[in-house]
Amino acid sequence: MTDSAKDDGFVVFDHVQKSYDGEILVVKDLNLSIGRGEFLTMLGPSGSGKTTCLMMLAGFETATHGDIRLGGKPINNIPPHKRGIGMVFQNYALFPHMTIAENLSFPLEVRKIGKSDREAKVKRALDMVEMGDFGGRRPAQLSGGQQQRVALARALVFEPELVLMDEPLGALDKQLREKMQFEITHLAHSLGITVVYVTHDQTEALTMSDRVAVFDDGRIQQIAPPDQLYEAPENSFVAQFIGENNTMEGTIEEIKNGVALVKLDSGGMIDAKPINVSKAGERTRVSIRPERVEYNRDRLSPDAHTLKAEVLEFIYMGDIFRTRLRVGGNDEFIVKTRNAPDQRRLTPGETIEIGWMPDDCRALDA
Amino acid sequence: MSDATDTGPVLAADGTPLKRSLNRALRREKLRALMLIAPLLLFVLVTFIAPIADMLFRSVENNIVEDTLPRTVVALESWDRMTGEPPDEAVFAALAEDLVIAVETKTHTRLGSRLNYEMTGISSLFRKSGRSVKRWDLATDGPFREKFIELDEDWADVGMWAMIQIYSSRYTSGYFLNSVDLQLSPDGIAAREEDQRIYITLFKRTIFMSLTIMFSCVLLGYPIAWLLANLSAKASNMLLILVLLPFWTSLLVRTSAWKVLLQQQGVINDVLVWVGLVDDGNRLIMINNQFGTIVAMTHILLPFMILPLYSVMQTIPPTYLRAAKSLGATNWTAFWRVYFPQSVPGIGAGCILVFILSIGYYITPELVGGTKGVFISNRIAYHISSSLNWGLGAALGTILLAAVLLLYWAYDKIVGIDNVKLG
Ligand SMILES: Nc1ncnc2c1ncn2[C@@H]1O[C@H](COP(=O)(O)OP(=O)(O)OP(=O)(O)O)[C@@H](O)[C@H]1O
Ligand SMILES: [Mg+2]
Questions:
Q1: Mutate which of B327, B340, B418 to disrupt the A interface (most A C-beta within 10 Å)?
Q2: CA distance A37 to A210
């Protein structure tokens, strides 16, 4: 979250549930509070209920249970067109029979804004997304990226305080996508609007957002700023879903001084930080980021537990080395090391000892 | 470019111009494609193009007079109808000669009926004269002028002779004039007698009722097409079957069903009387008039409006309506400004289909139209099968065809035919 945006509950989901067919809950007990000016991303696998949440907020779906509040007021009974929420759709939904300028002018016309005012606002909005010269064209005459910008401008032209975006960059190629990611965050922050953004691209979520809400199975698994989400996942779903991750299963031997001693199923003991495990004997899945694994004995604390590993593959990637190891029967254990002058290069077949700081290895639910 | 030859035609490897060798290569493929469609082409030509061409031709063709009375026609050329005198002996002699041959081949009655379209009484005149002329001896029985006038004094009628003279050319505009309530008379083009002027009214009525039917189809079909496009797949399939159900029932059955519903002792009147909205002595007349025709035909042609509308609406993603609403439009504005314009191609297609079908419709008006609700096509059918005035039927049909083409052209100018989507 940026400093200016504190969580003042501008948008609140309060115990919201949603079912389409009366049999399956697509959204199960959603609690979420979004601050004014915040850029919040909903991230999650397909079918996890992200779009459904967005549609409930926009007013196109009604919550089966619970309250949604906007600026303190419940909006369950306000029709979509009175909510004043800007929205960017995945396929842009630019009206094909209107020119770009007419598309942008549409929300102003339905708000009965005078003609000269309208024209000025349309022009300003188009200039903002650098599409000033395209006002007379039809949507079909624009490229995907240009249409995307127009859709953005149209969602912003009537100056909503809240803008919803449902995978707005899904149809763009990687390069354009990265450019647009930057432009959208930049615009959102400079205009001070609140954005709820849906994506299933985790890089997008991490680079753009103030906070990311990770969805799975109709629930928020974790909501946190990007760095925390990456470094301190609170359960094994988040750990798996965000970034690359090595996992090993085992049983808690003991928890002492905030450090858990884990006996791995493959044999061997390691130290880990207990996150959502509480007592000895519990099953756990320990998770460690590839770049936090150390095989240089000097960099580990003397009493650290270590594991034996066989090098299977060593890939030179320029800035980093990526090594695939076999650790306790797991062939897919990845280690990433920075290409530093003193860094040892491994050869396949050799056997090494790996270890890590207890804080970096997280014991999560199995 | 490296050398000067590049500015000339591009050459293929063997030195022939590339264009020519390309054409040669393509010709074989074109020929093969043509052979594939040849049966259909032939079929269309024989069953569709040829009848239309024949109809167009029949609407102006008038060989019968010259073929039946060749000598009379030649002799009549020098006669000036303005003198007010019947033609001289030469014409009557030629007539006698022609009639003898005509009677032998029995063509004189056909000529009689042809001329009777233009002037009543000629038919019986020819039949009567034919019987007598049979017994004449051409070589000895002259002069024939008196003999004919003695036979029937109509032969002295200048108007009758003028009629023969006017219609002696091989092509005539008579049928077309007839179709618009005019007539080729000895004094030029003139209006028909009041009680014979029916076609203009019929044309006007046909157009007016077709337009009414078309608009009712839009009004009734649009919401149904919308439902079809927006309901769940299961419900919309069910609805589609209901829409298509009428196609599986005979047209006659459907039309007769309307008779049962609409007649004075019918279901609707019974219900209205029972509810008390209508007095028993004052039952509504809803059949055998324009109302009956419009109701029955709207019902019959409705699927032709719904299907193209549906196919267009299916391609309009629901996100557009959502987008419009999220931008602040009320349901109505979103529909009217965003959804409706995108469905116009479907309306256009449906309107063209329904209008063209209804303008030439025939069975339903015949059954439920009474006298006030019949279309021009019923009149055409009458001329083709009852009065056997094929020329007039053809002329009426040609005018109908021209009207449809004209409307199509106008539609193209105003809305643009590219904006029509049939599927
Ligand atoms: N209109 C609907 N009727 C019935 N079920 C629906 C409807 N819309 C979505 N669902 C179901 O709700 C669940 C969540 O859907 P939702 O569209 O919210 O997922 P999502 O997180 O946006 O996924 P994606 O990343 O693929 O867009 C899915 O299982 C889906 O099948
Ligand atoms: Mg979605």
A1: B327
A2: 10
